[in-house]
């Protein structure tokens, strides 16, 4: 019997590694997989370095680890079964749809067996979720309250701590002009990380993103330090500024924990507990910060994982707005005059990260209004972000961001410069005018924003949450303004298609 550890299951605290402390361990680092897509160099480095560090930590514990660096996953299994013919493998269920079956086929064709056990890297098991979910409307807020009750996190008996379930209203402040977010920690590459960078230098050479400087946590100790740093320095302002965008502050007060969480280096419950403990023991952590953070991890992260389970396989192909445009090249090149997009793509190119509001309200919003095929956008999020995995990028991109699947989103997350200017300060340094909709200087978001409900009237007019938007659209149509707006939207798309920024004067 051998415990198979996948690259995003790097924990000794759960699953078969914890349950079978004496068994041999198998890990496979497949280079062809890493080279197959245009993955961000930081992501390749992060995953391979975290795997090698994890291997070394297991060996230091005295566990036998067979670690195969091979071209493909199948080659790694060949090497394993050559050495251990007919071996029985046990693995935690991979989070990606269909991966367990594919894995089983690969193992069985090599004469072995594969036992798939529950994935313990989440707080809510499939069985518990399926007990809770009645098959009707899938709503995050209901699930979140269920999770709070089930876990007792931020609960006083049956009531939420502070009296409210949700302090969303207090999560929409913008920082003062002179605000400086605390520095974020970076983890300098050690010898193991450097050897990974060397090994992948050919694959990473000349790609669209910057291989250096790399500073993501790659070990359990680094990940715990990153958690401690967040809770100590950024948790207090996390809540108030959760929805804000500030020029020159690409992380603001966000946790930067999705990458170590998605690799298994941190567990969701321990990060929730660390935040709640800080709230209980300190005076500088307001309820809207701890509740906001708990809502993201215990609520959204768990929710999208199960929404993915429920929604697949249809979710992967869903496209209810029939959006078919190619992803503009600017998502790779960062070549745009639009200050908010420029900053968000720059963060992705530099470190494979943009914070949630940049992802949703800038990167995804622009793609939605522009009409990008949701699956092209999903592929980009998947490969370009250090925390991108199919189980989490797909529900967030295809459903939340692109309103493509009728799974849990109640209306499209579409916004004009009005929202972006209110929640961020990028417009101050942008050549476009956030208050103008037509004209060469007009913010490109604005014409696209009004073109979107006009172009998708059949799909969206009956949505009662779009009533206000259609009221305004009708006013513009009645006033004879809509034709010019749609013409400007066409110009914006044509320029973007040509790899240029829409013209300014
Ligand atoms: C279009 C789009 C694509 C996304 N793709 C990914 C992805 O590939 N991988 C990924 O981990 N997250 C994804 N997210 C969710 C979220 O934006 C990131 O988890 C978050 O920005 C990570 O940064 P952070 O650790 O600083 O998070 P914070 O903003 O500080 O939040 C704390 C933690 O909450 C969790 N979280 C918050 N929101 C979500 C969410 N909607 N879904 C899942 N977890 C959440 C994360 O684990 C995160 O670390 C996406 C969101 C959008 C809108
Ligand atoms: S004016 Fe428009 S493009 Fe420029 S920063 Fe503001 S919202 Fe973004």
- CATH topology (level 3) name of the largest domain: DNA Cyclobutane Dipyrimidine Photolyase, subunit A, domain 3
- Name of the CATH architecture of the largest domain: Orthogonal Bundle
State the end-to-end distance.
Answer: 69 Å
Q: Strand count, sense and closure of the main sheet?
A: 5 strands, parallel
Shape: globular
Class from helix and strand fractions: mainly alpha
Binned strand content: 5-15%
* Average pLDDT reading: 96
Count of separate structural domains: 3
Number of strands: 7
CATH class of the largest domain: Mainly Alpha
Pfam families: DPRP (PF04244)
InterPro entries: Crypto/Photolyase_FAD-like_sf (IPR036134), PhrB-like (IPR007357), Rossmann-like_a/b/a_fold (IPR014729), UV-DNA_repair_photolyase (IPR052551)
Organism: Halarchaeum salinum
Protein name: Cryptochrome/photolyase family protein
List the helices and strands and how they pair.
Layout (H helix, E strand, L loop, with lengths): L1 E3 L10 H5 L4 E7 H6 L4 H20 L4 E6 L2 H11 L4 E5 L6 H10 L4 E5 L8 H7 L7 H12 L3 E2 L2 E2 L30 H9 L1 H4 L15 H19 L19 H6 L4 H14 L5 H25 L2 H4 L12 H4 L5 H13 L4 H15 L3 H11 L5 H12 L15 H7 L20 H12 L1 H4 L6 H12 L3 H16 L8
Parallel strand pairs: 1-2, 1-4, 2-3, 4-5
Antiparallel strand pairs: 6-7
The chain binds flavin-adenine dinucleotide and iron/sulfur cluster.
Describe the structure.
This is Cryptochrome/photolyase family protein. Pfam families: DPRP (PF04244). The chain folds into three domains: 2-117, HUPs (Rossmann fold); 126-187 and 219-311, Serine Threonine Protein Phosphatase 5, Tetratricopeptide repeat, CATH 1.25.40.80; 330-497, DNA Cyclobutane Dipyrimidine Photolyase, subunit A, domain 3, CATH 1.10.579.10. 51% of the residues lie in helices and 6% in strands. The protein has 24 helices and seven strands. It has helices at residues 15-19, 31-36, 41-60, 73-83, 99-108, 126-132, 140-151, 191-199, 201-204, 220-238, 258-263, 268-281, 287-311, 314-317, 330-333, 339-351, 356-370, 374-384, 390-401, 417-423, 444-455, 457-460, 467-478, 482-497; strands spanning 2-4, 24-30, 65-70, 88-92, 113-117, 155-156, 159-160. Strands 3-2-1-4-5 form a five-stranded parallel sheet, with helices on both faces. α16 (339-351) crosses α17 and α18 (374-384) crosses α19 (390-401). It is globular. It starts with a strand and ends in an 8-residue tail after the last helix. The mean pLDDT is 96. The structure holds flavin-adenine dinucleotide and iron/sulfur cluster. Flavin-adenine dinucleotide binds at residues 254-258, 261-262, 296-297, 300-301, 304, 355-356, 359-360, 364, 381, 385, 387-388, 392-393, 396-397, 400-401.
């Amino acid at each position: 019997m051998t415990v198979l550890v996948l690259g995003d299951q790097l924990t000794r605290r759960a699953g078969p590694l914890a349950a079978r402390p004496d068994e041999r361990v198998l890990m496979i680092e497949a280079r062809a997989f890493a080279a197959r897509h245009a993955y961000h160099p930081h992501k390749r480095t992060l995953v391979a370095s975290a795997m090698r560090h994890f291997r070394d930590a297991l060996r230091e514990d005295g566990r036998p680890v067979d670690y195969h660096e091979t071209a493909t996953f199948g080659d790694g299994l060949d090497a394993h079964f050559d050495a251990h013919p007919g071996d029985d493998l046990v693995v935690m269920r991979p989070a990606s749809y269909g991966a367990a079956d594919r894995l089983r086929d690969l193992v069985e064709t090599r004469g072995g067996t594969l036992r798939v056990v529950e994935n313990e890297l989440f707080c809510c098991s499939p069985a518990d979720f399926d007990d809770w979910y009645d098959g009707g409307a899938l709503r995050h807020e209901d699930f979140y309250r269920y999770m709070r009750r089930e876990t007792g996190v931020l609960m006083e008996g049956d009531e939420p701590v502070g009296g409210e379930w949700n302090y969303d209203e207090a999560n929409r402040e913008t920082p003062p002009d002179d605000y400086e977010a605390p520095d974020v920690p970076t983890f300098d590459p050690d010898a193991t990380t450097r050897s990974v960078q060397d090994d992948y230098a050919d694959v990473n050479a000349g790609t669209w993103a910057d291989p250096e400087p790399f500073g993501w946590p790659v070990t359990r100790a680094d990940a715990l330090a990153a958690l401690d740093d967040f809770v100590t320095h950024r948790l207090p302002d996390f809540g108030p500024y959760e929805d804000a965008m500030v020029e020159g502050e690409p992380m603001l007060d966000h946790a930067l924990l999705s990458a170590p969480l998605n690799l298994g280096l941190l567990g969701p419950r321990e990060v929730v507990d660390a935040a709640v403990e800080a709230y209980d023991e300190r005076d500088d952590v307001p309820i809207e910060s701890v509740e906001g953070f708990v809502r993201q991890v215990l609520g959204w992260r768990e929710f999208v994982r199960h929404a993915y389970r429920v929604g697949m396989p249809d979710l992967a192909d869903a496209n209810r707005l029939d959006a078919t445009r190619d992803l503009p090249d600017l998502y790779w090149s960062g070549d745009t005059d639009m200050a908010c997009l420029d900053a968000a793509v720059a963060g992705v190119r530099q470190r494979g990260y943009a914070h949630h509001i940049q992802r949703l309200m800038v990167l995804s919003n622009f793609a939605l209004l522009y009409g990008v095929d949701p699956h092209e956008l999903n592929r980009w999020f998947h490969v370009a972000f250090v925390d991108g995995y199919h189980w989490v990028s797909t529900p967030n991109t295809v459903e939340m961001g692109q309103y493509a699947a009728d799974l849990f989103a109640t209306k499209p997350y579409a916004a004009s410069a009005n929202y972006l200017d209110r929640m961020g300060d990028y417009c101050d340094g942008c050549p476009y005018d956030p208050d103008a909709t037509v004209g060469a200087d007009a913010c490109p978001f604005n014409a696209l924003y009004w073109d979107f409900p006009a172009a998708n009237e059949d799909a969206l007019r009956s949505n009662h949450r779009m009533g206000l938007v259609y009221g305004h659209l009708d006013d513009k149509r009645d006033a004879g303004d809509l034709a010019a707006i749609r013409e400007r939207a066409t110009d914006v798309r044509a320029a973007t298609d040509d790899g240029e920024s829409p013209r300014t004067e």
